[in-house]
Structure formats: structure tokens, C-alpha cells
């Protein structure tokens, strides 16, 4: 909504369900520091408006935008409520009643247009039926449509209605939802996020999205890194990415970010076996290859060692602190516990196979990530 027809406000839902909306007085909202503010308390058929010199700095309050129509009505209701002795002549009473009723009606029917965050309160309090009705209003009014469909997908996932959840998630994407990083980490979608149909949608979202947008989002949401790695590994989506990735000079700082080292070798986040990417890797001291099956990689390594025994007679690979070390190779496997001492990799492979056969945790599990440097 354009700035000339709305103002910034704060909204918080109190424990008793009453909504508290704070916004600057319309005549002073261009000033700083000493602007008078209105606080509107609203619940069902009750509204009370007060004025405050301070704009509350409450971390739990969400920033929203309120229409000036709402601001004007609330201001008029305050002026009438603030009068200690409301005049008894009918015209004044009628004006007050009319504005009061209009403000209540506005809150019932139009407030949600500017207060999408209210659905978070409904989720937190388990009022999924109310949240569903609110989201349906958004869709009907064609406001925040993609977010409304996304929340409906969450609602039906929480109800374990997978088919409906997947349908709504698909609708969210068709209407513009693109944030796959948030979606695969959203616990409200945990009942569907590994469903094959959901994975197909995620792959389509990734392939249609610019990698630089993903990296920019990741930079401010690094706490999602482990969840991303887990999802990429378990679903195998990295092998299904077709978008033309490019990490340009303005994003090379991510190579120095420790958290990004868990992501940088995935195709999703820009790794390509191209001269350009190899040059970027070499600039940071990396020579990189990628594998997702540790057992196959090690057996291939051992076969190559046997075939080229004359050339590589002195080469032995060891398992040491989650690293396989050779003259030109380190193979990091970030899952599992390291051995206390070095052993030849061939011996370690036998031990890991035995652990896997006993049903114990093993780095040979298909979900293990292996990055060969």
C-alpha cells in the first residue's frame, strides 16, 4: 500500500486475546521523538482508544501498516471517549456512536488486510480453524495470496492432511511463493516436506530462482544451514538442479564464512566443475571434486591405487579425525565420530561395513555427505 494512504503501526495480541494497535497521531507522524501516539485496544465488539507520549518499544509487537481511514476513525473515537462529560444532545451522541460502530466494523472486516501477522498468534495458540478462516479471507480478497496458501499448507500439514497440504503448497508456489530455504526448514511442514510431491515442487522452486537471491537470504538466516544440509542429503535434490548458477565477485566473501563451507560444494549453491569455479576455488586454496557415496569413492580409490601401484607405491590413505589424507587428497565426511588413531583406509572400510551390517551408525550410510578436496 502506498505511503500516502497508510502509516506504520505496531500490533501485539495480549494474553487475553485483545489486540493492541499503536500508531502515531496523524498530525505529528512526520516529527521525531515527541510525536503523540494512539493505542487502540480491540476485541470482538469492544474498542477503547487512549493517547500516549511514548511509542512502545516491544520486541513482541509486529510492525504493520494501517490505513489512514483507520487512523482517522480511531482519532475521532478517542476525542469523543476522552471527553469526561459527553454532551447529551442527540447529534453528538449519534456522531460518536456512528464512528465507534464504523471502527468496530472496520476491525472485523478490513483490519486483516494490514495485519497479516495475526495468523502467527493463531498458530501459536492452536486456533487453526480461526487461522484457516482468516487465510480464506485473504484469498477471497486477493491479498497476500501466496502467503495465505502457504499458511493453509502449514495448517493442513499440522492436521496431517498431506494431500490438502501439498495442494495448498503447490498453489502458494503458483501464486509467487519462492522461498524454498524457509519452507524446507519450517516445522509446520514437517509432515509433508519429505513427500516426493513436495520434493518435486522444491526442485522446481530452486531451478526457477536466482542463486544470488538464495545466498542473500542465507546470509541473514545462517541458523538454517544444518537444516538445509540435512534436507539436501536426505532428498538427493542436488542431483536434480538445472539452473545456471553463478557466484560473482560481489558474493565471494561467502567463501570466508565458516557456515558456508557446509553448502559450497552443492550444485544448489553454485558449485560447478567449470574453469571459472575452479579458479575461484584455487584462489581460496581448494581443488574440489564431489561425491555422495563414500563406499563407492573409497573402493574406486583403492582400485586406482592397485592399478597405479608402480606410480603411487608410497601412497597410503588414512582415516584420521574425519579426514582421509593422501598426498593430494583429503576426503571430509562430516557425519560420525573419528577414530582415536590412524588406520589404513582399506581396514577402516571393512570396519565401517561391519558397523553398517550391525545396524550401527556408519559413514557408509547413503545420507552421509562426502566432499573430496
Describe the 3D structure.
This protein has 373 residues and is of the alpha+beta class. The protein folds into 3 domains: 3-113, no CATH class; 118-258, Serine Threonine Protein Phosphatase 5, Tetratricopeptide repeat (Alpha Horseshoe), CATH 1.25.40; 294-372, no CATH class. Helices cover 42% and strands 13% of the residues. It has 13 helices and 11 strands. The protein has helices at residues 68-81, 90-109, 118-124, 128-141, 145-158, 162-174, 180-185, 196-207, 211-219, 225-235, 275-283, 294-307, 345-357; strands at residues 6-13, 19-24, 37-43, 46-52, 62-67, 289-291, 318-319, 323-325, 330-332, 343-344, 370-372. A 6-stranded antiparallel β-sheet has the order 6-11-9-8-7-10. Strand 7 and strand 8 (323-325) form a beta hairpin. The protein is elongated. Mean pLDDT is 71; it is low at 28-35, 273-292, 306-342 and 368-373. InterPro entries: TPR-like_helical_dom_sf. This is Tetratricopeptide repeat protein.
